[in-house]
Design goal:
By secondary structure, the protein is of the alpha/beta class. The chain has six helices and eight strands, in the order H-H-E-E-E-H-E-E-E-H-E-H-E-H. The strands form two sheets. The protein has a six-stranded mixed beta sheet, sandwiched between helices. Strands 2-6 form a two-stranded antiparallel sheet. Helix 1 runs antiparallel to helix 2 and helix 5 packs across helix 6.
């Protein structure tokens, strides 16, 4: 779980500031800020992990099914890697086959979420963690991946229920990490540099999808 050099330098600067503030504890507001900074530093200390609840999901509408830990890397996003992108995938198979593949340690890939044709959402990897889904390490570290049940050459697989459920999910991810709702930040797997994948393919209706994401993003939570 290697951290970038800039992140380590940032920790050192915050640490000096926190110690200085700690020495000026007479100011109550400043002391509270120091405690907050020290708490954040504690979580980022090597060997210290944030507490997690088994089966916990990041999206309220999702059901948890764990992927094999060989298909993702434990992280502490967005503290160690900022999240600024959602990547759209298509399973090239059934929902059940995708779940089975992501639970297989030999598969070496998985997304955070799978959206079924009926709109059901399953989460398999926490957004905190880096999923092996994009075929590009930098894009893996900075994105959340969403699979969609179906085949790229079958437009009938992309149902209204799927588009609507996925759009609500993407809208919540964008809200959580302040990701702009545009095609620079919501992309298909085919748009990842270095990939050999073509999904979501020519039948994925980007205009409809982005319209639904924008509507969900501005709707009351």
């Amino acid at each position: 779980m290697g951290e970038r050099k800039a992140s380590k330098d940032g920790d050192r600067k915050v640490g000096r500031r926190a110690l200085l503030v700690g020495g000026l504890a007479a100011a109550a507001g400043t002391a509270m800020l120091a405690r907050d900074e020290l708490a954040r530093l504690w979580w980022r200390t090597p060997g210290v992990e944030k507490p997690r609840k088994e089966g916990e999901v990041d999206y309220a509408g999702a059901r948890w099914v764990a992927a094999s830990d060989a298909n993702w890397r434990r992280a502490d996003r967005p503290d160690d890697f900022g999240i600024d992108m959602v990547i759209v995938h298509v399973t090239q198979g059934s929902f059940d086959s995708a779940v089975k593949a992501f639970q297989d340690p030999g598969h070496k890939a998985a997304t955070h979420y799978i959206v079924r044709q009926d709109g059901h959402v399953t989460q398999m990897i926490r957004e905190l963690d880096v999923a092996y889904h994009a075929g590009n390490r930098d894009y893996n570290e900075r994105s959340v991946g969403i699979e969609h049940e179906g085949f790229v050459d079958r437009p009938q697989d992309f149902t209204d229920e799927m588009y609507e459920a996925s759009a609500r999910l993407t809208a919540r991810i964008c809200a959580r990490y302040d990701i702009p709702v545009d095609r620079r930040h919501i992309i298909g797997h085919v748009e990842v540099p270095g990939t050999d994948h073509t999904d979501p393919g020519p039948h994925w209706d980007w205009d409809t999808y982005m319209r639904l994401v924008r509507a969900a993003r501005t709707a009351p939570a």
